[in-house]
Amino acid sequence: NTEPTWHYVPGIMALLVTVISMLLTAFSLVKEKDMGTFEQLMVTPINRLQFIIGKITPFFLLTFIEISISLLIIWLVYGIYVKGSILVLLLGSGLYLLSSLAIGMFVSIIARTQQQALFIAWFMMIFIIMMSGFLFPIENMPNFLQNLAKLNPLLYFIQILRGVIVKGAVLKEMI
Fold first, then answer.
1. To the nearest whole number, what is the mean pLDDT of the chain?
2. Which SS3 state, helix, strand or coil, does residue 137 take?
């Protein structure tokens, strides 16, 4: 479909997923530092991997709920339905969420307060969004920025959403 709505709505969905997953992760870990409970968590008998999994799992699941609600809304409001495989959409979303949650954790590591986390996360998100191909086509950017954009996970998530929702792409076509 060549209608602009079919092009922009999956991109907006990707931006919402990015903002929610990244900010919630960053805020939750920084709040642990603010409240002084982070040190208490570190002395519990869990290892670091269990701690990280325990912290990101709720946001991973919450964001999947957000994706489901977004798909329902874009179907009810805009009449845009998923033409491709829901399984491919969920697999791509899961992979993207791991990167988005990792960026949120990175922000929480370098921020000391929630205000700092908000500033750092928004600052990073501006570049992530600008280099995603959502606002400006990657092909119109200088070569060095095109190469830099290839490191942006949001670029691939938008391509997955547009491919599966608009074009009906299958896993073989997405690889």
1. 89
2. coil
